[in-house]
Design a protein that fits this description.
single chain; 138 residues; mainly alpha
Length: 138
């Protein structure tokens, strides 16, 4: 016959295992939330970058306010991406600045060359390839 004391001996480890399992599931859920928050913040910077490049391609004459907005909208990249993305964002900004200067000088050849650089970013999926390793969920 099984007495209450022996049932209690079996119940304690079972309860402990269940508690560990619940704790593990809570940890996994919290980690997933952090990952999704990071993903959302990274996606926003990717979208801002794409939007800026399309705006430059459309106007072929970036304005100072557009460039400042791009810098502000992507400033968080320093904290949530590796240095290579920050470097790429700086490169985009630098080309936009060169295009603005070329427009002021009315330098047709420079405008054409820099505009082609921006077009390549989209047509060759360079932006997507740069960001893709950091925007995968699974």
């Amino acid at each position: 016959m099984i007495n209450c004391q022996s049932i209690q001996c079996f119940l304690t480890p079972i309860i402990a295992v269940i508690a560990v399992y619940i704790t593990y599931q809570q940890w996994k859920t919290a980690k997933l939330k952090v990952d999704m928050d990071r993903y959302d913040r990274r996606l926003k910077i990717y979208q801002e970058t794409q939007g800026f490049i399309y705006a430059v391609m459309r106007d072929v004459a970036p304005e100072t306010l557009q460039m400042v907005k791009f810098r502000v909208d992507t400033a968080e990249a320093d904290f949530i991406f590796p240095k290579e993305i920050k470097k790429y964002l700086d490169e985009i900004y630098s080309h936009a600045k060169e295009l603005m200067i070329a427009n002021n000088k009315k330098s047709g050849e420079d405008i054409y060359n820099i505009s082609c650089w921006f077009a390549d970013q989209v047509e060759k999926d360079i932006v997507k390839e740069k960001f893709k390793p950091f925007l995968t969920i699974l």
